[in-house]
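Notes from the 1:1 (GR / supervisor)

We went over the backlog. Supervisor wanted to see one worked example end to end before approving the batch request, so GR pasted a single chain during the call. The sequence is below; no edits were made to it. Supervisor asked that the structure be written out right there so they could see what the output format looks like.
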Amino acid sequence: MSSLYKSPGVHIESAADRYVALDRVETGVTAFLGLAAQGPRNEPTRIGSYEQYEKVFGAGNNFMEASVRGFFENGGRTAYIVNVAPKGGLDPMPDDFIGQQGIEPRGLQALERIDHVDLLVAPDLMQHYKRSVGFPERTHILAVQRAMVDHCEKMHDRFCLLDALPGDSMHDAIDWRRNFDSSHAAFYFPWIKIPAARRCSRPCRRRDTSRARSLARTKRKACIARRPTSPSRGSSMWRLACASASGTCASIIASTP
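Structure output shown during the call:
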């Protein structure tokens, strides 16, 4: 191919046609997997307020409802709700969250077609531990949490927050943490207690979504101009640990063994 330049020298060429602008995108968008009293099932639904959640999915006295309310009350702006409640009021099973069985996308499988998600939580998972026929053992919780990590690693543009099991000690939580080796997940410990909120008959506990709200605010302040990418598998993984006997919590970077 002949050159456009006929003589040697310094030539100025515009690169405007090769410039691709980085569009500013919304970050801190959290996906909630859980059981709702009403509303669409296994259909990721975008909401922008707790009032919208209440209108579409109804109010309830469960971890999902309390977590979504807390998310928006503390600065969250956009969330996707995936209602994994089985039909007929049956107890949920691990695959209701994972969604491997069946023809129609369910649970985590339904989230794969949504690009605008940064964080993933499953608040109701721990509420059904030893209370539902589908979650009598720790291994059933582990199956769902591993599926959440696998989902984030597959999509490579999101990060999941995992709960410690209810009642676990620090030693138990550290042992549970060893089940995971990923840079796409964080393990949250200890559980935190908050004063009783509206419609709660007992003190509510908000766990992973507290970290989700904090991360959402941090992402917005950082003004990220493109989809975030995660480091390679096997790097460090966050956890919250009790820093003193009084219950003061601090964020600790826990290196993967």
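Supervisor's comment: Residues 197-207, 218-257 have pLDDT under 50 and may be disordered.
Batch request approved.
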